[in-house]
Amino acid sequence: MNRFPMESVVTDNTNIMNATSQPDVFFACRKLYFETMTMLTNSHYLPESELSGAFARDIDTVNRFIDRFWDETRKKAGTCTDCTDVDRVYHHFFDKMDAYQYTMDDTCRRYYNDKESTGPLILQKMR
């Protein structure tokens, strides 16, 4: 049972953020999660320590998402039959992540950008 009406928003978005490998879904849920947590803290439904804890866990949450999306990208690239398709799959990863990099902490941006060095050689030359 929910302690407060918006608890399900927090719980549902947490579950989605921890499971999805789709950037649009992850970052939309992350935004709603923090907006809801902030609103609940400002309304005194939650102590500030819970919001602070959520922000402290955010780097790990984002990096785990990056890993899931990267792993999915590598699996898709592994099924490609030619270099053009491989290139398209990896570019999709970077294009999607580029759209959200300014919503991430510097630590997460570095973590995301480090994926480039583990991508195929053609990507390393192009970026």
Radius of gyration: 17 Å
- The overall number of domains is 1
Which secondary-structure class do the elements indicate? mainly alpha
**SS summary, helix count:** 6
| Measured distance between first and last alpha carbons | 49 Å
Q: How many DSSP E strands?
A: 0
Task: Write a short abstract of this structure.
This protein has helices at residues 7-19, 23-42, 48-78, 83-98, 106-114, 121-126. By secondary structure, it is an all-alpha fold. Helix 1 packs antiparallel against helix 2.
What can you tell me about this protein's structure?
The chain has one domain (7-126). Helix content is 75%, strand content 0%. It has helices spanning 7-19, 23-42, 48-78, 83-98, 106-114, 121-126. The radius of gyration is 17 Å and the shape is elongated. The N and C termini lie far apart (49 Å).
